[in-house]
Amino acid sequence: MRIVVFIKQVPEVSELRLDPVTRRLDREGAASMMNPFDRRAMLEAHRLREEVGGTIAAVTMGPPQAESVLRECLGLGADRVVHLSDRRFAGADTLATARALARTAERVGFDLVLAGRYSIDSETGQVGPEVAALLGVPFLGGVRRLDVRLDGSEWTLAAECEGDDGFVACEGPPPAVVTCTDRWKTRIPRILPDEERAAEGPVEVWTVDDLGGAADDYGQEGSPTWVEEVRPVATERRQQRVSHVEDAEAALGLVREVVSGALAGDARASAPDLVHAAPDSGAPAIWVLGERGPDGSVRSVTWELLSAADRLAAGIGARTAVFLLDPWLPEAPPAVEETLARELGRRGADVFVVGPDSARSPVEELVAAIGRHQPRIVLGPATAVGRDLVPQVAARLGLGLTGDAIGVEFDGEGRLQQLKPAFGGQVVAPILSRTRPEMVTLRPGVLEEAKPDPTRGPARIVHLEAATGRDPVFRCLRFESEVEAGAAAMEE
Fold first, then answer.
1. CB under 8 Å to 469, separation ≥6 — which residues?
2. pLDDT tens per residue, range 324-337
3. Residue 460 parent element (H or E)
4. Cα of 317 vs its chain's centroid, Å
5. Closest Cα to residue 421, out of 393, 444, 402, 435?
6. Pairing relation of β-strands 377-381 and 438-442?
7. H-helix or E-strand containing 482?
8. Of 40, 67, 92, 338, which residue is the least packed, with the fewest Cβ within 10 Å?
């Protein structure tokens, strides 16, 4: 099996500083290391090669000093390492990065691509799913267990993918792109690095010319998004030192004090009202990609996204549509669709867009529908499902995407600023997009949820036609909630 591992060199977050003059992050002198999630992927590749045979190729994109992480990979057993190093790669956003990595994987040849779930410096988790979309292969995100078996003459990948409420067990044939979580369930080999091989092994250096395509496919020129500035985040915390707790009752009182203080500090003002009355006609200019939970109920992040969409729609006089991401749920019957439409309408939706088959990955339907209707803005959830699906849609459409944002707002020029935290929350970067629709996923729990309006009618139901292409999907075997898993573990 040909395994390609994507590796990223990241700075030690604790050593980053904000330049008081330029308001930009100063990386000068900051120590660098291999992204911890990518190290997990590298060790998993080593395990799989031990079990089923094959080769490991490690790939990184970065300045000359990023060679050090590839040499570390050589010491950990990589058969081949490729360094994408060219000034023309500089300034790449996630899509331009994914484009370079996907073309590298194609040139190297692969059956399986492994990477970390995300990097600790940006935490978007977009590159993996975007690479999968560009390669046209299945994507498995947040994998905590991966087994490879040979069924006759065919390889099968069996995986457990972490979600927000539990995990999904699925299987399918390679090729595929897999991102590894930190809670890995399979055996991780204990490897003593080969220091001589790390120091002396060959490192292939590739440039833009080696990958082919237009030069403006890469780097800053090929990036549909850019960072306008970097804003520092001031954190205020009340500090109290407790030197000694004499008994259990006193300790319990201390816990109550901490909890009550946290709840008081987190208490939000009363929920705002919906502010926008939609025009009677016209295609919805703002699409919300909401989500249902395993029990079929609409997740609260959907209401948060609809509240944000309501405020944006008021600013541009637009209508709002909702599409629910629920790839592991069976298709909703008409009665359930009508109930959802009433609920969505009271929360500010004008249109409820329903796919032809919700029990599968909806990437193809969304690609076709967004490409056809050309909305102005697409808001999605930065949940496990949203992080996996929305980047694939963006990559297929060649659109910029800001992941895991904490807010959206129009600037003075009417552009959508997508507020993205980075480097462990030390800074917030307003990100802008050169492409339309402007796409962003928003972190659950950080936006205000507007009060439902009982006077609003149900959202109009619109059914999408089945897409002509079928995006590759692994077969879902079962879903297991964290509660069920915990109960089972207690019984053992």
1. 364
2. 987 666 667 778 89
3. strand 460-463
4. 30
5. 402
6. parallel
7. helix 482-491
8. 338
